[in-house]
Amino acid sequence: MSKRIKGGQAVVEALERLGVEVVFGIPGVHTLEIYDALYDSSIRHVLARHEQGVGFMADGYARASGHPGVAIVITGPGVTNIATPIGEAYADSSPVLVVASNVAQPWQGRMLGYLHDLKDQLGVMRAVTKWSGQARRVEEVPSLLAEAFCQMRHGRPRPVYVEVPLDVLGGFGEVDLDSIGPVRPERPAPPAAAVRLAVAAIERASRVVLYCGGGAVASEASAELVALAEQLGAPVITSIQGKGAVPEDHPLCLGTLWEPGNAVDRLLRQADLALVFGSKLGAQDTGDRQLPLPDTIVRVDIDPEEILRSYLPALAIVADARETARALLEALRSRGIRKESWPVAEVEDVKRQALAGAWGHEHAAYVQALRAAIPRDGILVNDMTMMCYVGNRHYPVYQPRTYLFPTGYGTLGFALPAAIGAKIARPEAAVVAVVGDGGFQYTMQELATAVQFRLGIPIVVFDDSTYTAVKEAQAREYDCRFIAVDLVNPDFIELAASYRIPAVRANSPEELSGAIEEAFTRDLPTLIDVPVCFPV
């Protein structure tokens, strides 16, 4: 049954019908029709301080919960500000919906001086989204938002964009909301013929390995992958996005410990079959294709383009990772196929060797302190900073969706706002943000959001007054000609005091662990300043 309502009301009521419980945003004069409708809505609004924070919060919400994050921004600067976090969500396959206003349709692209006018706003967002659309009439709003959710929930989960111009937001139309509702994730099963071919390849192989990426996490395939690894006695290696797909304290899990020439590298060179679940096998995780996968690779991916982009497989299965792992497991069990590709004791020895010599081991005590303080199901939200790079190797992850890292786009400033989004999504979980002093200053204004919503998040700032990764590169590649890498920082303890929140300086791993545990007892954020030195 249709009803006559304004476009802004149609946006909010459609989001309600689609199951949205939380939106992140900053109001502006162009989005007041949406905000007026939110006043009477069941949807919770989380107010950020910058649209970059809005995007990272929605992304953190999506990664921690598995449900789409929703962001609302204004025309022009709101859109360009959120483009960076949406680029991150696109690179890391995170489902985020951005709803934005635009100038009235007759004036778009004409640059007549209207407030926030942008030459090609839709084009800006097309560059960083899976799908983008514009509502040209009020009547189109519900179906357009429903299509946006279908795009996020079907196939590869990536961000989408819906634009509603001012004349549509403020106009009236006959809107049918009864035809839309929550969209369930699509989980395509593997073709039976592909399963038979994969089982035949497994039967022929002597030494099988599993490689799990972010798609394995997104498909919630953990139980099936553990069972498959145990059925085959197969070691499991993961990408950074795949951390937690298999618990890293499982005796067959080698996690992210591969490095060229190390013990995991030597193990891989003995393999004759790799089963790859939900990974793009990208340059960062494979050392620009140095990862020595065997000639015979079976790749399982929901994205038909990604599956042929790197490391061409002997068999490509375009399907859901969990459904495929389950089908393989059932077929192997029905045929009585069980293997010991590697003895468990040998895999555990490989892990010990690799961990002892892994990159960043001299700083691992701080990462171990984080792990000791954070519960098994707690969420660690990382930034692009040296200690987090150490954590990629040395921080064991036991459950999916508990290690958030901005891998693909590699933007600084992710950790704090993404941790806010994660805590909003899972208020019962312990959530910790870890960030460098440089990256913290990209989005530190979101401390105000954490304070306003009384979020008990420990914010760990590793403080060395330097863009260390860049300085290391200048030392290595440019004969120590250092430029634009040394920082003049605020006093972070005093900064926290200005927000009226607790702060402490931790001068050792032991002090860090204790500070985090104490921070968990509060319903406000705690800033933990950790002075460190990375020799360059």
From TrEMBL:
Keyword Cell wall biogenesis/degradation: no
Domain Thiamine pyrophosphate enzyme central: 197-328
Residues in Thiamine pyrophosphate enzyme TPP-binding domain copies: 386-530
Ranges for domain Thiamine pyrophosphate enzyme N-terminal TPP-binding: 6-121
Recorded family membership: Belongs to the TPP enzyme family.
Protein name as it appears in the record: Thiamine pyrophosphate-binding protein
Pfam families: TPP_enzyme_C, TPP_enzyme_M, TPP_enzyme_N
Metal-binding found in the keyword field: no
Example GO BP: isoleucine biosynthetic process
CC terms in the record's Gene Ontology section: acetolactate synthase complex
InterPro entries according to UniProt: DHS-like_NAD/FAD-binding_dom (IPR029035), THDP-binding (IPR029061), Thiamin_PyroP_enz_cen_dom (IPR012000), Thiamin_PyroP_enz_TPP-bd_dom (IPR012001), TPP-bd_CS (IPR000399), TPP_enz (IPR045229), TPP_enzyme_TPP-bd (IPR011766)
Alphabetical list of NCBIfam families matching this protein: PRK07524.1
SUPFAM superfamilies: DHS-like NAD/FAD-binding domain, Thiamin diphosphate-binding fold (THDP-binding)
Organism this protein belongs to: Thermalbibacter longus
UniProt keyword list: Thiamine pyrophosphate
Molecular-function GO terms, alphabetical: acetolactate synthase activity; flavin adenine dinucleotide binding; magnesium ion binding; thiamine pyrophosphate binding
CDD domains named in the record: TPP_enzymes (cd00568), TPP_PYR_POX_like (cd07035)
